[in-house]
Amino acid sequence: MKKNLYFIFIITILLFLYIFLLSLNYVESVSYNLSENVFRLHIIANSDSEEDQSLKLKVRDNIVNYMNQLSNNCSNKNDVLTLVKNNVNNFKEIALNTIKENGYDYDVNIEIGNFYFPTKTYGDISFPSGNYDALKIEIGNAIGQNWWCVLFPPLCFVNASSGIVPEESKNCLKDNMDSEGYKIISEGNSQTSDESNIKIKFKLIEFFNNLGK
Length: 213
Description:
The structure is a single chain. This protein is α+β, with helices and mostly antiparallel strands. It is 54% helix and 18% strand. It has one domain. The protein has a four-stranded mixed β-sheet. It has a two-stranded antiparallel sheet with strand order 3-4. The longest helix is centred in the first third of the chain and has 36 residues, at 2-37.
């Protein structure tokens, strides 16, 4: 009897480890696909005052407008990343000029790197939490609320009233991602999707990525 229980225990542990490793491998594959094809923007306001939060949005608007002009002919994330690196001084100048034009003298710190992002939804597209390459802009003391968005594909100005991502941006995502990755971001966090297995996978990615936060 004890031998049977011991055997069942060992089989259960091995089965658990097998499922765990399969899940981990899946999460790493999808997360890598997302990270390799998405470039994000993170702006941190000087403080949570109404004035500083308004200033943050003005900096955002000018940064995104400039980025859209730069990346108009870009078809993949690597091209966008190269452009951003080559124009990082211009981004800083735009942010500083915007701050000065609005009557403030805050300094700006700009960094290009790989950063952790929480789960974020843009219209009908959701990105699970995880590490993404991004342009991070810190205004002044940088202790205010954040602004997070996606510079490539361009999702920073999603129509808030309709909550729908433009087809052009979706097509760009489809062209740069594998089918599984696109399903995850387009259906994984949807309240109307019938693909329950995709939702489970989305939550699985969040769970494992948050473990390493």
